[in-house]
Structures are given as structure tokens and as C-alpha cells.
Amino acid sequence: MRIIFMGTPESAAKVLDNLISSQHEILCVVTQPDRPKGRGQKITSSPVKELALKHALPIEQPEKVKSNPVFFSLLKSLNPDIIIVVAYGKILPKEILDLPKFGCVNIHASLLPKYRGAAPIQWTLLNGEKETGLTIMKLNEGLDTGDIIKQEKVFIDEDDTTPVLTEKLFKRADNLLHKALVEIESGKAKFIKQNDSEASYASLITKELGEIDWKKSALEIHNRIRAMVPWPVAQTYYKEKLLKIWGSKIHVLDLVGGSNLPGTIVEIVKNIGFIVATGNGHLLITEVQAEGKKRMPAYNFVIGHDVKIAETLPN
């Protein structure tokens, strides 16, 4: 098929890479404009653009896709059979949705109608779900409300972080997309309406979502820590300085002599890290990042900052 590909992050680049090596023809790659990134705010291309450049594919980076007649005319002139969208970052207008012979399809990282929206993987982890999956759907004008073409379930391990679960999901994307494209082209695809009554939404992740409340349960805090990797990263304070928490494990601890206030450091675990009391249970902190420093094993932080039992992390 003649394909226009729209996507931006690394997960989208992996899908594009497999399409490039398939029998399909990539007419054009559309991705977000180059943006400032990192501490130095260096102008950086998206992973999708980098891959497209490597393969000398035509690239478009419109600031807007709605009310952009020049961009629409370009897409129309390419006469695509289908547009494939993977985490592009912009909502397509009806004129683009209706342009290709077979419409526009999207790979969404949840089992729709659950977790419609911008951050399905993070919210899946934040809510402690045991399973999720990939959905290939036909795009319409709604927010992830289009008809379902294919789905595949994926089980979640208790220590999966956002990058780990993203990789786990998108390992399945190529085979699922291949099946969907074959069925679409042959006219055998089934388009299943979503049940809106079962829908939930995964809003954009904000920096505030990284704030740890030690009065929550160990499980809730652990889920927040793994969901907030790699941004904004879960955070607390130690001696009034920001401390980012990159890794943790639920810890079963049999303490003698009563309970501790949430946020209290109750044990140092040699070569691993430190254990913190929560509103319900205990959490072993395994990887941290002190203010202005690089990520490090939590035990290195303990040694370097002379962390003591009974010190507290504020709520």
C-alpha cells in the first residue's frame, strides 16, 4: 500500500522502521517540528525524523495540521492508500481523515475504550492495572473513539516502568499492524464500535503528578514511581533538597515496637537502599537522583549523605 506515516517518539520510529523494510511504499513521513530539549535546550529532531533522514524519506513538519491548505494539498497530491498514525501528537481534521482510500489508522497503547487520551501507559501503571494492550483503530474526529480493527492483550509485571511497558507493547505492534493492513486492503477487516460507557481517559502527565505523598499506601507510591519514569520522575525532599525517586520495590517488613509515621526511614539495606514507612506498608527505595546530580543506586546516596534511620521525608 501507499502509506503516509505520522509519528514522533521512539516507539513510533520502531513501527516506521518495520514499515520501511516491508513491501509497502512510504510516500512521506510527518512528524513534530524540531524542539529545544534538555538542560542546554538544544534544538532536537524527533526519533521519527532521524530515522526518515537515514532512509532519505520525504519529511514534513507542519506547526499545525488544521486550516493548513498547503499541507493538505501536499498530502492530497501524494494520493495515499492509508495514513498510519503512531503517537504523532496532533489531532487530524476531517479533511485529512477522509483523504486516503482506506482512511487513517492509529496504534493506541491501551485496550480501548479504556485509557483514551495522551498518556495511556502512564495512567495504566499509576492505577496499578494488571493488564493492558495495543489497539489498532480507524481514526475519526473524536479523541480515540474510532472503530477497533485489532487488539492484543499484554500482561503487566509489578515492576514495569513506563519505558519497559512501552517496549513490551510495541514489540507486538508490527505483527498486529501487518495483520490489520492485510485485512484492510483485502476488504476483510471488521470495524467494531467502541462501547462509550466503558471509556476512561488518560490525560496529559503533569509535573505535579510526580509528587509523593507518603501517607498513601506503599503500592500506590510504587505505582506512581514506575509510572513517572522518565518524566517527570517521582519526587520527595531530603533535608529540604529535592530527591527524585527512580526505582522502588514493595517490601514486607516485620518491625517490633509499633508503627512509624509515613515518610520515616525505618531501615538501611546494605548495597541496595533504604526502606520508608508509608500510610500502609513499607517501600524499599532502590534508585534516586539528588538535586543537581545524576541517577545513582539508593545505597550510594545513603553513604554519600549519611542517611540515618528515623529521619523523615516530608509529605
UniProtKB/TrEMBL annotation:
<protein>
    <recommendedName>
        <fullName>Methionyl-tRNA formyltransferase</fullName>
        <ecNumber>2.1.2.9</ecNumber>
    </recommendedName>
</protein>
<dbReference type="Pfam" id="PF02911">
    <property type="entry name" value="Formyl_trans_C"/>
</dbReference>
<dbReference type="Pfam" id="PF00551">
    <property type="entry name" value="Formyl_trans_N"/>
</dbReference>
<comment type="similarity">
    <text>Belongs to the Fmt family.</text>
</comment>
<keyword id="KW-0648">Protein biosynthesis</keyword>
<dbReference type="GO" id="GO:0004479">
    <property type="term" value="F:methionyl-tRNA formyltransferase activity"/>
</dbReference>
<dbReference type="InterPro" id="IPR002376">
    <property type="entry name" value="Formyl_transf_N"/>
</dbReference>
<dbReference type="InterPro" id="IPR036477">
    <property type="entry name" value="Formyl_transf_N_sf"/>
</dbReference>
<dbReference type="InterPro" id="IPR044135">
    <property type="entry name" value="Met-tRNA-FMT_C"/>
</dbReference>
<dbReference type="InterPro" id="IPR011034">
    <property type="entry name" value="Formyl_transferase-like_C_sf"/>
</dbReference>
<dbReference type="InterPro" id="IPR041711">
    <property type="entry name" value="Met-tRNA-FMT_N"/>
</dbReference>
<feature type="domain" description="Formyl transferase C-terminal">
    <location>
        <begin position="205"/>
        <end position="305"/>
    </location>
</feature>
<comment type="function">
    <text>Attaches a formyl group to the free amino group of methionyl-tRNA(fMet). The formyl group appears to play a dual role in the initiator identity of N-formylmethionyl-tRNA by promoting its recognition by IF2 and preventing the misappropriation of this tRNA by the elongation apparatus.</text>
</comment>
<keyword id="KW-0808">Transferase</keyword>
<dbReference type="GO" id="GO:0005829">
    <property type="term" value="C:cytosol"/>
</dbReference>
<dbReference type="InterPro" id="IPR005793">
    <property type="entry name" value="Formyl_trans_C"/>
</dbReference>
<dbReference type="InterPro" id="IPR005794">
    <property type="entry name" value="Fmt"/>
</dbReference>
<feature type="domain" description="Formyl transferase N-terminal">
    <location>
        <begin position="1"/>
        <end position="180"/>
    </location>
</feature>
<feature type="binding site">
    <location>
        <begin position="110"/>
        <end position="113"/>
    </location>
    <ligand>
        <name>(6S)-5,6,7,8-tetrahydrofolate</name>
    </ligand>
</feature>
